[in-house]
Amino acid sequence: MENFKSGFVAIIGRTNVGKSTLTNLLVGEKIAAIANKVQTTRTAIRGIINRKNSQIVIIDTPGIHKPKTKLNETMIETSFGTISEVDEIIFIIEATSEEIGRGDRRILEKIKEANKKTILIINKIDLVQKEKLLKLIEIYRKEYNFEAIIPISAIKEKYKDIILDEIEKNLKEGPAYYDIEEYTDQTLRQLAEETIREKALIVLEQEVPHGIYVEVEKMELRENKNKEEIYDIEATIYCLRNSHKGIIIGKNGEMLKRIGRMARIDMEKNFGTKINLKTWVKVKEDWLDNDAIVKKFKLKQ
Q1: How many CA atoms lie within 13 A of 175 on its CB side?
Q2: Beta-carbon neighbour count of residue 228 at 10 Å?
Q3: Which domains does the chain have, with CATH numbers?
Q4: What is the pLDDT of residues 163-189, one digit of tens each?
């Protein structure tokens, strides 16, 4: 038998390039919020991949963007902080790029500084012609000695093993850091918060979503009268303004019910139990710059 390998791998890239979609594909479970909005991921989420001869711990990081609040600064700090901590990096860019933009350049410089083994993933290849893609590969090849350059469309299952094989090849021998039954180091409470926030991101109007965060106040497992396990979850969606509160609740509470229903269905599938979910909406105007709240999103060692 081959010697067992293990290691930590950070997925890093600009906002909305497909990092969370790729994380969920590689892990084979839904652990990261996915929405077609920028800044969906706010904290470093770890996904655990157990293979025959290795354990790969994938870290999905917040997208690199221009910071406007303490939360944004913390998110960027988290992303760049993971570069020095991990064994390997997956740098993900979009195939539609014509050149190395400012955000990608910033990431590339951090990778060069750290001199880490890096795999370049070019996502969304279905959107460009082959000639354009080859030109982009050439631009990046001149910049850094990547272990591999893999063009993909992140939603397609067929790329999963190609990427995992490449990651495994570059890892050193080491122990399993987590139990083989685990697929994330997030608690169920955190997964519940992420799920509710993801559904809000999907259905809400443009200006509202990034001004919200979710806090689960109660999460209790009990048996119902049919002896089935059921989680009672109570969560509050915090937003920045009264006008946003009205949008989140919606006419006759319809929007909030929709968010709750979508989140409950997802959680029941992920947790493997029935869910009784209650949600409330409260206004907290300063939370984006509130140290006590922003601290929750800092990188946990």
Answers
A1: 3
A2: 10
A3: 5-173 (3.40.50.300), 188-297 (3.30.300.20)
A4: 999 999 999 998 887 766 665 655 677
Answer yes or no: pTM beyond 0.70. Answer: no
Q: What is the pLDDT of residues 46-57, one digit of tens each?
A: 778 888 889 898
Of 100, 107, 114, 144, which Cα lies nearest the Cα of 14? Answer: 107
What is the Cα 4 distance to its own chain's centre? 27
| Closest CA relative to residue 213, chosen from 39, 4, 81 | 39
